[in-house]
Design brief:
mainly alpha; rod-shaped; single chain
Length: 219
Amino acid sequence: RRDRMVNGAAVGIAFTFGIIASFDVLDMDTSPLTLAFVTVTGLASILSLLFRRRRPVAVGIVTVVLGLVSPLASGAFLVAILNAAIRLPWRDAAGLAILSLVSSPIYFVFYPTPDPDWFDFFLGAVAMSAVVAWGMYVRARRQLLDSLRDRAIQAEADRDLRLAQAREQERTRIAREMHDVLAHRISLVALNAGALEFRPDAPPEEIRQAAAVVRANAH
């Protein structure tokens, strides 16, 4: 359920951002063929996010390439780069961001803006840096939580082991004490039974006392 919710949020954010970017760069008199091409490539880029967990690099490259020809894919490649920063070493995420920045002039050839080129490049660099930094923060936080969870599990296992060892030591102590007491009692039984065996002519009072000792210790 959590994965489905995250997938829905990723697709929704990418689609919303792509729609906003499309409104900013597409003219009202854009041809139907161009609109169809932008829509198809943009939706393909957004749907590729569903595979971002298993193929973060491939999804990142696909969204960056499709983002060069479709403003609708702008949100998708931002989400893909964020995903790469979360799941991959920072060098891989930075490589995807640099690839996007280096290839950004191709996008501005298809969709020129009134702003200077250096300004667009600067905004893109700031956006990419923020996305990669955010992904690295999420990655570090997840690693910290995993480490704390592993420590908690290890501490619980150590506690259970100590409890088991304490129980075993207590059982051993009780068994040792029972062995000592039982050995003493059986020795008394054997001693008095032997007295009865070797003194059959003993006075009745002595026989009664010896029998009482045997009964009490046996009990």
